[in-house]
Fold this protein.
Amino acid sequence: MSDLIDLIDLDGTADSLSGKMIMGVDPGRNKIGWALTTSKGSLILSGICLVSELDVFLKALNRPANEWEKELAVWTRERQSFVRKVGLGYVALGNGTGSREIESWFARFDLKIVLIEEKGTTLTARDLYWRFHSPTWWQKCLPRSLWIPPRKVDDLAAWSIALRSIRAPVFAGET
């Protein structure tokens, strides 16, 4: 299991209420995974958005933070906590497929962007999925490498990108 998972505080008890939220983004050609986390990495909300809906998605993010839960509901896959009213600190963007195009979309909204190496985040996302959703009895008979989640896990890959950014953030343009 990935050492990133050791950072996770599933019930959010380690977080202070004053830290800004982080948005992890797993970019792709047709869709993006996104995850809102606390400043310490606890998952708040996560989901998957089609690139064709990105403008609407970003306009929803431009609304006050206390309205995000309602505004982002159409894309939400996992919900672990309530959105705090502290705002967004930065966007942790994976540097893989489609990242340049997605970065330009986020830059239009004057959001601070952190570029993060995303190699291996899909495998971490699978592990994260199984932390939330117990495998069936017959899946437990199989080797863990054969446990395939029944849904796309781009949102959980975005969460792992956010967790990596907490470990060693490097802001775009500072490398």
